[in-house]
Design goal:
single chain; about 325 residues; seven-stranded parallel beta sheet
Length: about 325
């Protein structure tokens, strides 16, 4: 089945039957109705600890189900608190990770377009080394050389690594979705004088991007105590091509009220590059065609906090 998309700046929401929904209806829908109305495989946990445990189990499942064959994963920094849980479970189960290859989604670049140093407080590579690699037991046999990190100077190398180790798509992609829809650092590519067509955007591979103002604002609130100057202005990111080719997609919403809007956009908005997280509902095949993901290869995880209704209030 080929999925045809028409991109529009107009928000369009539909339920599982294709019935049009208003923006207000989507925002006010009770959490307990999200799965049934959307038709998506959504798991709502009571606590974030349960959410992180489930994410770790999904990673474990991908390794175990491979039965010694090569396993490839695209991994985010955000969320990250499932990585220590994964490392603990690997140790408990005495798993062998020698056939695991991982691709980090993205990394910040400084104002000169250079990859931030691992000493930078927002270095994604440093965070992965601290939260994952350094916690894995030596008996897991997971060499750091099998962790691919995008940089400003290795774009084609990352693309070749996908072609070599995941020619039919990564086995698993874990991702978060930002308030304005970014997945990895794939944001709406159209801004100021830049105009990008849908086909071009969907074919993007590893690339350099300008970090949008809204993302800077959110990162400043979450990671920089409100200081926007601490957030690097550029980034390198894996593009939609390799993300959407993943065999299994798991979206995690973990940032409390900040992600309520994004969750409902993903669940009910028609796929659009103007909110790239909605594109994760699509699977890209080798010939470039797009089809809706099934409940088996798209899982959406959140807690009751992220699943709450979208409302504004004074602070």
């Amino acid at each position: 089945m080929t999925f045809s998309m028409t991109f529009s700046l107009t928000s369009e929401y539909v339920d599982r039957s294709g019935k049009l929904m208003s923006r207000e209806e989507v925002h006010r829908l009770p959490a307990e109705e999200l799965a049934d109305r959307s038709g998506h495989n959504i798991h709502i946990f009571a606590t974030h600890e349960e959410l992180y445990d489930a994410l770790a189990d999904i990673m474990i499942e991908a390794v175990v189900s491979a039965k010694g064959r090569k396993t490839t994963m695209i991994l985010p920094v955000g969320p990250t608190l499932h990585y220590p849980v994964f490392a603990r479970k690997v140790a408990e189960k005495k798993l062998d990770l020698s056939k695991l290859w991982t691709f980090n989604m993205d990394e910040f670049l400084d104002r000169k377009g250079r990859t931030v140093d691992v000493a930078h407080p927002l270095s994604f590579k440093a965070e992965m080394m601290k939260k994952l690699f350094s916690l894995l037991p030596t008996g897991a046999h997971f060499p750091v050389e099998q962790m691919f990190f995008p940089r400003h100077d290795n774009l084609e190398e990352i693309d070749r690594a996908f072609d070599t180790y995941a020619p039919e798509g990564a086995d698993l992609c874990l991702a978060g979705v930002g308030p304005e829809g970014h997945v990895a650092f794939n944001e709406d590519p159209n801004f100021r004088h830049v105009r990008v067509g849908e086909e071009e955007f969907l074919n993007d591979r590893t690339k350099l991007v300008l970090v949008n103002t809204s993302t800077v604002d959110m990162d400043a609130l979450v990671a920089g105590c409100g200081d926007r100057c601490t957030i690097p202005p550029f980034a390198v990111t894996i593009g939609p091509h390799d993300l959407l080719r993943s065999k299994a997609m798991v979206l995690a919403f973990f940032a409390d009220r900040f992600q309520r809007y994004a969750l409902r956009e993903v669940l009910f908005r028609k796929p659009t590059m103007h909110f790239p997280g909605t594109l994760c509902k699509l699977k890209k095949s080798g010939d470039g065609s797009l089809a809706p993901r099934t409940e088996e290869n798209l899982r959406i995880l959140c807690t009751r906090e992220e699943a709450g209704i979208v409302e504004s209030r004074t602070v």
